[in-house]
Design a protein that fits this description.
The structure is a single chain. The chain is of the alpha/beta class. The strands form 2 sheets. Strands 1, 2, 9, 10, 11 and 12 form a 6-stranded mixed β-sheet that branches. The protein has a 6-stranded mixed β-sheet with strand order 3-8-7-4-5-6, sandwiched between helices. Helix 1 crosses helix 9 and helix 2 runs parallel beside helix 3.
Length: about 240
């Protein structure tokens, strides 16, 4: 079986960064097609009427949105280490959230109530953090700081999925998983890698097995993607569409 090609469907800057991290870890060049299924458009909404005591960030883009809105020096609950790094660079004081929306919610509720919270998020979300915090008695506002617009798969991506070359496709969110699943039927042998069980769920129509990262973070996705890439020929490949 020929060496697999990576299909990277994240927005282009994130896809290129992930490919670079994979190649550094692998110590060599990897064949890849970058075919984003979403476009990110930054937004700068007006500040809410009440000033937040702390921010909630569920992505790096939330931190960049905080900077555009002029929030600095505030505590920021961050879903993962990469978001925390972005928050620090934006002049915020990051607090660890444990890696998932559920652990983030638990961490916030376990901490003392310091005042109103502000969740800076995209126009598509899962977890309903603000609603659940309000239901638990915490004041929480929301502001949409970026839009995630679906894009059709590129010609290069369609050509890859309609061919015979084995494909390894890492998926980082439930929405990107759903957009990839909508590309079915897929002829190419396909190995899927998901950052979480929520991201794996929409992929079920593409094949019976999906490799889950050990943790919902970039380092674990690098490990899982390289493992899938290295062992693809050592197991039965999945085939999309009719599987």
């Amino acid at each position: 079986m020929p060496e697999p090609t990576l299909l990277l469907t994240r927005p282009e800057p994130a896809a290129r960064r992930f490919l670079a991290e994979l190649e550094i870890r692998a110590g060599r060049h990897l064949k890849a097609v970058i075919a984003p299924l979403m476009r990110i458009d930054e937004m700068t909404p007006p500040r809410p009427a009440r000033s937040p005591a702390a921010l909630i960030l569920t992505s790096e883009r939330g931190a960049w949105g905080a900077a555009r809105m002029g929030y600095t020096g505030l505590p920021a609950w961050c879903v993962g280490p990469r978001t925390a790094q972005a928050a620090r660079l934006a002049g915020l004081d990051p607090r660890p959230g444990g890696g998932t929306a559920e652990t983030l919610l638990a961490a916030i509720l376990k901490a003392p109530d310091e005042g109103p919270l502000l969740h800076l998020r995209g126009d598509h979300q899962r977890g309903d953090l603000a609603d659940r915090l309000r239901a638990a008695g915490r004041g929480c506002d929301e502001a949409v700081v970026y839009a995630q617009t679906a894009r059709p798969l590129s010609e290069a991506g369609r050509h890859l999925l309609s061919g015979r070359t084995p494909v390894v496709a890492p998926v980082f969110s439930p929405r990107s998983a759903a957009l990839l699943a909508a590309c079915a039927p897929i002829a190419a042998p396909l190995a899927l890698v998901a950052i979480s069980s929520a991201a794996a769920r929409p992929l079920s129509k593409l094949g019976p097995r999906v490799t889950l990262a050990a943790r919902p973070d970039a380092d674990a996705m690098i490990d899982a993607t390289l493992e899938a890439h290295a062992t693809f020929g050592c197991r039965d490949p999945m085939r999309g569409g009719g599987a």
